[in-house]
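Example (one chain per record):
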Amino acid sequence: MACKNIVVAPRLNAKTPKILVPRILKRNERSIGGLWRQESSSWGDNLGLGNRDHLLHIPTSASPFHGLTCLRNHYLVASQIQTPGSVSSGVIFTWPLSKPRGLLRSYPLEAIGPLSSSKDGIYLAGGATSGNVYIWEVINGKLLKTWHAHNSALTCLAFSDDASLLISGSEDGMIVVWPMISLLDETDSGSSHTSLSVSTDHKSFITGLLPSSNVSHSVFVSSSLDGTCKVWDLITGLFCKLTHFRNQ
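Predicted structure:
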């Protein structure tokens, strides 16, 4: 189901942290699979501002399941579902939240579904229906890595709190934990990558992934259309706890 309207509510009395603004590609630059490209459309053409109830309102959006993420509270990033019969590849829209800049538009190599950004705002990951996963460096929009992660469409992506791991879930119920140090190893040019753990315990579509860490333990929670919610050890991939939700 696509999200047609996006409303972002303001956070009162909150200080906005300073971050490096992504370098926008010049108009004559071409970077296949790159992330940032600025459109000529004005701020006011895409957003509604100046309302006490919300910070901004985007009236038209076709974001898929988990296709929306926020980069360091400065940018709203949304993948877009392509219309039936469209010959174009995927498109990702990025709206600055605090300054009246134009819409940033990205054209990845294929249509992207779920998105996830690391908490430090350094990396953005996107998953495709082909089973491929893409990782971009946010500051310059460079495509760092792409690989075939699943044999079915990606439905969820999530970075660990320290961005050392990337968790991916797919339509067939599979969950894979990937070490970022291996994925970003420039000496590894192979198409396959070693995962930290793989789970096939869910029997249906993965609907959510939520990592959680403390001083002594790191876990993540997964939910599925099979009616279960499971807790896993993030490092070992071992099953910790099961909650079953019956249909009412």
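Caption: Confidence is low (pLDDT under 50) at residues 9-32, 39-50.
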